[in-house]
């Protein structure tokens, strides 16, 4: 099956610093990638949708200047949390969907998640 | 707009008993429906999906779900619970109208299995 990786799996940083999280599709080309945030004991909340080569589309209430998303290639998307604060501490999960000819485009493949802790 | 509700934020069953996790959806267009499982501090694993073919969908680990359009439901069942089934389960809905449509998740149901 299609595999999506995330790096790092866990990161701890000081308040005010920026953190970059990578999401890679290892064996397929991901025309669309999604970024989710999950707080403890809660569901996944979609933050943004990114299509390769285009600007990301952010969900209502998500600050695009704080959560920078780049989808520069068909196998890599990055989420940068700028000037992170303790309230940004969360579990960040990405998913990827292929285009025609790849994995079924109506199915998303999820990464293992990144645990961000801001001190 | 699409949405998902899951009745019961926590379900507890005895080992060997039937597992029933409820999911109801709302969608103005024909939906795709999914069930995912999440173990602590891990990502999501797809259990099964409905994509407008057979209404009874069989998934991994002995799980199955039935799409009932009249009830707008997609309940997840397993005949006999195993200790390893204890996890968080999410029902999700997407749309077949666009290949770029996002997946909307329900609030989740935490399943406990009592030995």
Protein chain pair with the most extensive contact, residues per chain: A-B, 26 and 23 residues
The parts of chain A where pLDDT drops under 50 for at least 5 residues are none
Report the span from N to C terminus of chain B: 41 Å
User: Strand content of the residues of chain B, in percent?
Assistant: over 45%
Q: What's the tally of helices of chain A? A: 0
Q: Name the structural class of chain A.
A: mainly beta
Shape, principal axes of CA atoms of chain A: globular
Percent in helix of chain A = under 10%
Whole-number average pLDDT of chain A?
90
Query: Describe the biggest sheet of chain A?
Result: 7 strands, mixed
Number of strands of chain B: 12
Distance separating the two termini of chain A: 37 Å
Low-confidence stretches of chain B: none
Helix fraction bin of chain B = under 10%
Integer-rounded radius of gyration of chain A: 14 Å
Please summarize the sheet with the most strands of chain B: 6 strands, mixed
Helices and strands in order:
The complex is a heterodimer of chains A (119) and B (115).
Chain A lengths: L3 E4 L2 E4 L5 E7 L4 E9 L5 E8 L5 E2 L8 E7 L2 E6 L8 E9 L10 E2 L3 E5 L1
Parallel strand pairs in A: 2-11
Antiparallel strand pairs in A: 1-3, 3-8, 4-5, 4-9, 5-6, 7-8, 9-10, 9-11
Chain B lengths: L2 E3 L4 E5 L4 E3 L2 E3 L4 E8 L5 E7 L5 E3 L5 E5 L4 E6 L8 E9 L8 E2 L3 E6 L1
Parallel strand pairs in B: 2-12
Antiparallel strand pairs in B: 1-4, 3-9, 5-6, 5-10, 7-8, 8-9, 10-11, 10-12
Report what the structure shows.
The complex is a heterodimer of chains A (119) and B (115). Chain A is globular, with a radius of gyration of 14 Å. Chain A is built from no helices and 11 strands. Chain A is 0% helix and 53% strand. Chain A is an all-beta fold. Chain B has 115 residues and is an all-beta fold. In chain B, 36% of the residues are buried. The interface between A and B is medium-sized, with 26 and 23 residues.
């Amino acid at each position: 099956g299609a595999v999506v990786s995330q790096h790092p799996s866990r990161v701890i940083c000081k308040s005010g610093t920026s953190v970059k999280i990578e999401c890679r599709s290892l064996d397929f080309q991901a025309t669309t990638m999604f970024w989710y945030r999950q707080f403890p004991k809660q569901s996944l909340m979609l933050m943004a949708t990114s299509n390769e080569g285009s600007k990301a589309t952010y969900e209502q209430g998500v600050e695009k200047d704080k959560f920078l998303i780049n989808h520069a290639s068909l196998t890599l998307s990055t989420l940068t949390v700028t000037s992170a604060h303790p309230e940004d501490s969360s579990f960040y999960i990405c998913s990827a969907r292929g285009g025609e000819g790849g994995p079924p485009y109506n199915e998303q493949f999820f990464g293992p998640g990144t645990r961000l802790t801001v001190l | 707009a699409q949405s998902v509700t899951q009745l019961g934020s926590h379900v507890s069953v005895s080992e060997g008993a039937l597992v029933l996790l409820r999911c109801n959806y709302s969608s103005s267009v024909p939906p795709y429906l999914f069930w995912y499982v999440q173990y602590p501090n891990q990502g999501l694993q797809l259990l099964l999906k409905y994509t407008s073919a057979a209404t009874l969908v069989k998934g991994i680990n002995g799980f199955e779900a039935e799409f009932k359009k009249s009830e707008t439901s997609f309940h997840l069942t397993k005949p006999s619970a195993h200790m390893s089934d204890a996890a968080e389960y999410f029902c999700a809905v997407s749309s077949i109208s666009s290949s770029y449509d996002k997946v909307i998740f329900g609030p989740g149901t935490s399943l406990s299995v009592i030995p």
